[in-house]
Amino acid sequence: MSIKSDKKWEIIEFLKEHSIFKFVEAKILAELSPLLSEVEYGPGQIVFHEGDEADALYLIKSGAVAVMQNKDRGKATAYLTAGECFGEMAIIQETTRNATIRVPEEAVLLRLPKQALNDLTKRSPDITVAIADLINKRSTGNISFIAPGLQGNLAFFDLPTVVQTLLSSRNQGLLSLYRHPGKLAGQITVNANTIVQAYYGELTGSAAIFELLCLTEPLDFIFEHNKSKDKLPATELSERSPQMLLMEGARRSDELTKLIRVTSYPHAVYKQLNAIPSFDALENEHREICRQIWSLIEVGENIGEICRQLPYDRYSILNVIEAMLKRSMIGLCQNETNNKIAKSDIQPEFGKTVSAETAENPFELVRIVNAVNGVCINLGLIYGKEKIRSIVQTCLIEACRTYPSLASAKIQTDSPALDLRHASDDFSNSKSSTQALLHLSNLVLAETSSMQKQEN
């Protein structure tokens, strides 16, 4: 959609105040703005692919985009947020695109066609110099532009890549994660390219970082810049290499799914098989954790409660429990759970579904995904995450038969919520995706209602 004349000065102000084009003279921006068009993108939509012809320069007006390269097997390696531009390098250097740009959640982009840029440079050669200077500043890291801040929902974004993006930006600020409705779950403080502080629930430091990097729960997140130049005090985290922390977090995240399955987390209850265990049989770093787990098993706590009470991330605890199982120190109690959530605490409103006003609007898909995830998570609180997750998985498979646009949607590893981090371009492009999500929601509610009637 072309920029209307009455929005010209709004666009100029945005370019001057909130983008890397703040370094370009106002008279050049005035010539640039009428040539821009505004385009909306939704979850999974591709702006362009690696190897495509460079036909336009893009500026992010709102939202964020993911940068992906074939060598990384299509995994997002960074996110660009409001105010940043992309695609200019291939135009200036007259090459093909060197990366694929995908929208994880939603974004409004300002598009400047290559031909329009070329025509403008003929009339105003200064813009070529300005953009070339801009590219040089970006490549050398000498640009002082501060983006408004990265934000979104983890159903669409990969948290380790979010953290890596913030570290690469070399800015100081606070990444906050929220559960609905606006309940603060955890925070990560970064300073330049260092992780300074972190907490999640009762966990702090590296334990909090590792737990956060393993999250699959669809939390909202927002990064806020701290413009203070004061140096933050050194901590246990700031003394560690952030790259090593991220690599270790990625390893633990990969292995956590297997540990969850092996240990039957979170409802399994274990019993002691030895009156006096041999803690020396375990690795040194596991012994203290093992002693604390042993004490909680003795009083009948399930794994979920054990993880909640101990000051370690889940990977560390489940890894020790797996070692205890292999050494026959403990065994699973059959038919025992310790679900402390009473069904009377929360009652679902069966029959109610989210509604969509405009099926063609990709932004509406984001709202519906969040609404569906909210329903599934609340049902998980009542009946147990694993039970509802299984129902959602079954319903998703069934819904995909009618609505193929849902095929790229997955279920979170440790949550009964949709995972759209790898949603395909078809998800937003298909006009049936809105109805597909509503259909899925109805299937889940119907299955849960049937389960409730059987239990009663």
Tell me about this structure:
This protein has 456 residues and is α+β, with helices and mostly antiparallel strands. The chain folds into 4 domains: 5-140, Jelly Rolls, CATH 2.60.120; 151-250, no CATH class; 268-332; 362-455, no CATH class. It is built from 15 helices and 17 strands. The chain has helices at 8-18, 26-32, 88-93, 114-123, 126-140, 159-169, 205-213, 242-263, 284-298, 303-309, 314-326, 362-383, 385-402, 425-429, 433-455; strands at 37-41, 46-48, 56-68, 76-81, 85-86, 100-102, 107-113, 151-153, 173-179, 183-191, 194-200, 203-204, 220-225, 270-272, 330-332, 410-411, 418-419. Strands 1, 2, 3, 4, 5, 6 and 7 form a 7-stranded antiparallel beta sheet that branches. It has a 6-stranded antiparallel beta sheet with strand order 8-13-9-10-11-12. A hairpin with a 2-residue loop joins strand 11 (194-200) and strand 12. Helix 6 runs antiparallel to helix 8. It is globular and about 85 Å long. The termini are far apart.
Helices and strands in order, then pairings?
Elements: H1 8-18, H2 26-32, E1 37-41, E2 46-48, E3 56-68, E4 76-81, E5 85-86, H3 88-93, E6 100-102, E7 107-113, H4 114-123, H5 126-140, E8 151-153, H6 159-169, E9 173-179, E10 183-191, E11 194-200, E12 203-204, H7 205-213, E13 220-225, H8 242-263, E14 270-272, H9 284-298, H10 303-309, H11 314-326, E15 330-332, H12 362-383, H13 385-402, E16 410-411, E17 418-419, H14 425-429, H15 433-455
Antiparallel strand pairs: 1-7, 2-6, 3-4, 3-5, 3-6, 3-7, 8-13, 9-10, 9-13, 10-11, 11-12, 14-15, 16-17
